[in-house]
Design brief:
Distance between the termini: 21 Å
InterPro entries: RqcP, S4_RNA-bd, S4_RNA-bd_sf
Subunit structure: Associates with stalled 50S ribosomal subunits. Binds to RqcH, 23S rRNA and the P-site tRNA. Does not require RqcH for association with 50S subunits.
Family: Belongs to the RqcP family.
Number of domains: 1
Pfam family, one: S4
GO biological process, one term: rescue of stalled ribosome
CATH architecture: Roll
Shape: globular
Strand content: 25-35%
Oligomer: single chain
Largest sheet: 5 strands, antiparallel
CATH class: Alpha Beta
Number of helices: 2
Length: 79
């Protein structure tokens, strides 16, 4: 699954366009490498996102094309 879509579906970032812009700005890393929006995300990958002065690091535990709001938190775990 594309990185920008995963960030939206898992609700780490609320909108896909915002996720896309964060990737273009170089603020998203997958497995310690700067990632573009089209980067493939697999189970076990570690995603690191810089939100201003805060950094969020999560591990992908599940991939789904769509989820309910309650189930979105099961798609990743904080590292």
């Amino acid at each position: 699954m594309r990185l920008d879509k995963y960030l939206k579906v898992s609700r780490i970032i609320k909108r896909r366009t915002v996720a896309n812009e964060a990737c273009d700005a170089g603020r998203v890393m997958v497995n310690d490498k700067v990632a573009k929006a089209g980067t493939d995300v697999k189970v076990g990958d570690v995603i690191e996102i810089e939100f201003g002065n805060k950094t969020v690091k999560v591990r992908v535990t599940m991939i789904a094309d769509s989820t309910k709001k309650e189930d979105a938190k099961d798609m990743f775990e904080y590292v």
